[in-house]
């Protein structure tokens, strides 16, 4: 049912000149995990710099 709604919605959006992309949910999950890892790495780097530099 959800697939049919998605197809209908995307068809209507394209008819109204909207850009529509179909994305594999697994790719979205992988992207989100990568973003979280980058945020953790940045936070770790800031903490390390504060510790080393005495900030």
Task: Please give a structural write-up.
This protein has 55 residues and is mostly helical. The chain has a domain at 24-55. Helices cover 78% and strands 0% of the residues. The chain has helices at 2-15, 25-53. The termini are far apart. The relative contact order is 0.07.
How would you concisely characterize the structure shown here?
The chain has two helices and no strands. By secondary structure, the protein is mostly helical.
Relevant terms:
55 residues, mainly alpha
Shape estimate: rod-shaped
Distance between the termini: 56 Å
What is the tally of helical segments? 2
Strand share of the residues?
under 5%
Mean pLDDT over all positions: 79
Share of residues in helices: over 70%
Q: What is the β-strand count?
A: 0
> Rg to the nearest angstrom?
20 Å
Q: Low-confidence parts, pLDDT < 50 over ≥5 residues? A: none
Order of helices and strands: HH
Largest sheet data: none
Label the structural class: mainly alpha
């Amino acid at each position: 049912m959800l697939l049919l709604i998605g197809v209908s919605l995307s068809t209507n959006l394209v008819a109204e000149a909207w850009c529509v992309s179909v994305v594999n949910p697994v790719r979205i999950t992988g992207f989100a995990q990568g973003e979280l890892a980058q945020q953790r790495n940045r936070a770790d780097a800031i903490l390390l710099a504060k510790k080393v530099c005495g900030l």
